[in-house]
User: Fold this.
Amino acid sequence: MTFETGQLKERPLVYLAGAISKCADNGSAWRLDITPHLYKLGFDVFNPVIEQPKLTGVDRDELERRRLSDFSLYRKSCQKVVEVDLKVLNKCSLVVCKLDDNVFGGAGTFGELTVASLLDIPVYVWVDFRAGLASLPSWAMGCITEFSTTKEDFYKLIPSAEIFLAQSKIAENVGLDIDSLPDI
Assistant:
């Protein structure tokens, strides 16, 4: 990513993680709501609800039909979904996630948070469990960079793309090697 007279030449890519398969709306409402905000902050957005069917050739309804009728084909379709998600995550600069009660019906969101953590991709999370933070699994908490329990505060947490890139560049220049840190 480079700057040209205060403007980004390339916009950092944000991956929108969160429940899909167990949501009545496939997790689209919050993603559609936050996307204009992220664009305004200078990011490009990967919305798996919209993009995944284009990249895999299988929408959620077809995936469900395959689950019920042809488990071998269903497994292959799921493998394609995971492959696409991992490739996109590897190109992302930031993960923005909503964790609500629907995430417990699947494994993808927690997998995405783990991969993001492994790749040192910052993860910003809106925690929206009915039971509050007590419902947040410790593994997921270990993958999170920043979080909020309200939508309004969550939107304020996410830095602009320019600030995000500047902070990333500072961290690069500091040269902190996590492997050189003492064991806890």
In short: The radius of gyration is 17 Å. Residues 3-48+92-175 form a domain with the Rossmann fold fold (CATH 3.40.50.280). Helices lie at 28-40, 48-56, 60-69, 71-91, 108-118, 138-143, 151-157, 161-174.
